[in-house]
Specification:
34% helix; 17 strands; alpha/beta; six-stranded parallel beta sheet; five-stranded mixed β-barrel; globular; 429 residues
Length: 429
């Protein structure tokens, strides 16, 4: 949205008091995020009464009319499936004489203008290669919000890669609701089905044809469709990091079946083994959900046993949040897990993960690794960064001991000296 507005002559300001129009990019995935989006919008309406406040993003896509009715002070409500058309929407909004918020939910598009602002730490950028999802997990509202999966054309993705590399980006984080499914929708357009299944690997291979010292990080790979070609690619080019974010969600077959997922504890452990056999230094992050319909004490115990056996590097844990319109909401209410019990189970999993992650990070001690510098610590001979084992914002960090400030966004060769909690300490070489 920012890139398309700047191309039309709009100016971005970091100070809301200077803004004539405030866009609140909302989230509609879980209840806490919905409430935060609404609270933030109300704060802007109160603090900036002269500005036109517009709700955009996922919550606006899902509940456009409801938001316009419940928050009539809004100037507009704009959906999330064609963000590059925001300029025309704002023009129409400014031209209307109606006292009601203007509401638009445009048709979906996938091509995006090149971004001016990356909203990430120096040297790092997220690159979304597709929108939407076809997996239809019973608990998930993403297909309702984002729609069916729509892959960006490879040429469009590669043009953005080239632009990011020209701008000095050193870490490209490939993002999709399911990276393993990239290109599968092309078969609906007449592309050979076998060719479509190879699209993720072919896209990554095309990125590696670019010269330069940069990382490629693969985020969000559906476990039941994990491409073995990813392992071959990582082994063939060190710039493709052996880091995989694989959302297993659970390990009990009965719970997974209710989630609409075909996996199993045995199958997931086998996938983890194959990854580590092929790439001994690999790092695996996952998301686990507790408190879903039908999660008995036995099913929860099976999840804990999976956590113990899998020894995953990083784990995010969430208590199930019922979402309107999802298949799970039409399930048997007798299978409900009390929210208090779900939160208790989430705490148990989080506590159990701490020593596992610490042991996994101990593997880094004594190694010499490239670290992407994020920032310098004021008035301290320290800098903060990440090595291959740390995805942006969600994992630990590398605390670098250095005699002089380091350049954020640059790679620095470091000797990993020790682990400190979930972080590691290093010395710049």
């Amino acid at each position: 949205m920012i890139a398309s507005l700047q191309a039309l002559g709009w100016t971005l300001t970091r100070d809301p008091s200077d803004a004539s129009t405030i866009l609140v990019n909302t989230c509609g995935f879980i209840e806490s995020a919905k409430q935060e989006s609404i609270n933030t919008t109300l704060e802007f309406l109160q603090q900036s009464p002269e500005a036109r406040v517009v709700m955009t993003g996922c919550l606006s896509q899902r509940y456009p009319e409801e938001l316009a009715t419940e928050i009539p002070e809004l100037a507009g409500v704009f959906g999330n499936r064609a963000p590059e058309t925001i300029g025309g929407f704002l023009d129409r909004m400014a031209g209307t004489s109606s006292q009601k918020p203007l509401v638009e939910v445009p048709e979906a598009t996938v091509q995006r203008p090149l971004r001016s602002d990356l909203f990430s730490f120096p040297g790092s950028a997220y690159l979304k290669v597709s929108e939407g999802c076809d997996n239809r997990c019973s608990f998930c509202a993403i297909p309702l919000i984002r729609g069916r999966m729509r892959s960006r054309p490879p040429a469009d993705v590669l043009a953005e890669v080239d632009d990011l590399l020209r701008r000095g980006v050193r870490e490209i984080n490939l993002v999709a609701q399911d990276l393993a499914s990239y290109g599968r929708d092309l078969s609906r357009l007449g592309v050979d089905a076998r060719e479509a299944t190879q699209a993720p690997a072919e896209l990554i291979r095309a990125i590696t044809e670019r010269d330069g010292d940069f990382w490629i990080r693969l985020l969000y790979v559906y476990p039941d469709r994990f491409p073995e070609s990813f392992l071959e690619l990582c082994a063939s080019d060190a710039r493709i990091l052996p880091y995989f974010d694989i959302p297993f969600q659970h390990a009990s077959s009965s719970v997974l079946k209710r989630m609409g997922r075909p996996g199993s504890r045995k199958g997931y452990l086998d996938l983890i083994r194959r990854i580590r056999d092929a790439l001994p230094d690999s790092v695996i992050r996952t998301s686990l959900m507790v408190g879903f319909f039908g999660e008995t004490d036995e099913a929860f115990s099976e999840l804990l046993e999976f956590q113990k056996q899998a020894e995953l590097d990083w784990v995010g844990v969430f208590a199930y949040s019922p979402e309107d319109g999802t298949k799970a909401m039409r399930g048997d209410p007798e299978l409900d897990v009390a929210p208090e019990l779900a939160e208790e189970r989430a705490s148990i999993v989080r506590e159990a993960q701490i020593p596992i992650t610490q042991a996994r990070m101990d593997r880094l001690v004594g190694k010499t690794l490239d670290v992407l510098v994020e920032e310098n610590v004021p008035e301290e001979p320290l800098s903060l960064g990440r090595c291959y084992a740390h995805a942006p914002e969600v994992d630990g960090a590398v605390v670098i001991n250095t005699q002089k400030p380091l350049e954020p966004g640059s790679f620095v060769r470091c000797a990993i000296a020790r682990r400190n909690g979930l972080d590691v300490e290093a010395v710049a070489l």
